[in-house]
Amino acid sequence: MFRYGWLTVTADDLAIWQQFPDASFTLVNLPSQPDAPEEFHLGAFEIPVAPPHDDR
After folding, report:
1. What is the rounded distance in angstroms from the CA atom of residue 41 to the CA atom of residue 34?
2. Which residues pair with 17 in a beta bridge?
3. pLDDT at residue 55 in the model
4. What angle do CA 49, 45, 13 make, to 5 degrees?
5. Do the beta carbons of residue 8 and residue 41 sit within 8 Å?
6. 2 and 28 in contact (C-beta within 8 Å)?
7. Spatial separation of the C-alpha atoms in residues 16 and 6, rounded to whole Å
8. Confidence of residue 53 (pLDDT cuts 50, 70, 90)
9. Strands 6-8 and 39-46, how do they pair?
10. 39 — phi, psi (to 5°)?
11. Quick one: which of 55, 23, 25 has its CA closest to 40?
12. CB 31 within 8 A of CB 38
């Protein structure tokens, strides 16, 4: 249980995280019944750009 609902993480989400551990994901709220806890899943992700390599 997430702090304010359920967070569903898929195998594809985990594969992205394993390949890019610094990736930032967007949290997406899924429609739910009025009395049910909110449900979220991970949406689009952003991979940070690595700083330029310094060959001094």
Report:
1. 18
2. none
3. 62
4. 120
5. yes
6. no
7. 20
8. low
9. parallel
10. -125, 135
11. 25
12. no
Rounded-to-integer distance, Cα 21 and Cα 24, Å: 9
Residue whose entry in the numeric block shows the structure tokens 């991979």: 47
User: Global pTM?
Assistant: 0.63
Give 1-56 as a DSSP string. -BTTBEEE--HHHHHHHHH-TT-EEEEEEEP--TTSPPEEEEEEEE-PPPPPP---
Choose between 55 and 18: higher pLDDT: 18
5: region left, alpha or beta (phi > 0 left; psi from -120 to 50 alpha): left
